[in-house]
């Protein structure tokens, strides 16, 4: 079951993110990986900044989460994670399809360039990579990430996004 996450879900969201993000270890640039991958303070700040989390619940417990953040003319998919033991069961696709129905705006997704599984997931679900110049512009415009993350990330867009804006 997909449901809107509440403030009371914050600890479980934190657990899912940090369990799932272990897959980044040894894959993303070493200087960008830390444990926990996202601190409780960072998660609270993301929620305060307008990231709205939706969760997939199985057996009464959240096992996957995905956030959406409105950025005026676009929406961003933020922090899409499925706990390790629940992967490959279609949870990410179900969450993505649900979130896509929540907005008529173009959707952008940023992820690590070296996270081939994440890029493959989004491409399989109809997203396309933007070119390097556009990526840099979009990351600076819609995300608040350090330059090192801009250098080592990619941006994907859905078919509603008009390139070259």
Automatic annotation (TrEMBL):
Q: What class of enzyme is it?
A: transferase
Q: Which domain of life is it from?
A: Bacteria
Recorded GO terms, molecular function?
Answer: acyltransferase activity
Question: Does the entry feature the keyword DNA damage, yes or no?
Answer: no
Which InterPro entries does this entry report, sorted A to Z? Acyl_CoA_acyltransferase, GNAT_dom
- Enumerate the PROSITE patterns for this protein: GNAT
Task: Name the coiled-coil region(s).
Answer: none
Q: What keywords does the record list, in alphabetical order?
A: Acyltransferase, Transferase
Q: Does the keyword RNA-binding apply?
A: no
Protein name, please?
GNAT family N-acetyltransferase
Source organism per entry reads: Paenibacillus residui
Task: Give its E.C. classification number.
Answer: 2.3.1.-
The residues covered by the N-acetyltransferase domain are: 1-148
Organismal lineage? Bacteria, Bacillati, Bacillota, Bacilli, Bacillales
């Amino acid at each position: 079951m997909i449901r809107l996450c509440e403030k009371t879900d914050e600890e479980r969201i934190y657990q899912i993110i940090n369990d799932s993000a272990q897959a980044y270890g040894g894959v993303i640039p070493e200087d960008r990986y830390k444990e926990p991958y996202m601190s409780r303070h960072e998660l609270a700040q993301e929620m305060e900044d307008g990231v709205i989390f939706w969760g997939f619940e199985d057996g009464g417990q959240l096992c996957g989460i995905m956030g959406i953040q409105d950025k005026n003319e676009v929406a961003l998919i933020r922090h899409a994670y499925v706990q390790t033991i629940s992967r490959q069961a279609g949870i990410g696709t179900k969450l993505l399809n649900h979130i896509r129905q929540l907005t008529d705006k173009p959707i952008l997704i940023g992820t690590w360039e070296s996270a081939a599984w994440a890029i493959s997931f989004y491409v399989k679900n109809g997203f396309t990579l933007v070119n390097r110049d556009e990526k840099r512009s979009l990351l600076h415009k819609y995300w608040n990430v350090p330059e090192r993350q801009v250098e080592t990330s990619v941006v994907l867009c859905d078919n509603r996004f008009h390139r070259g804006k």
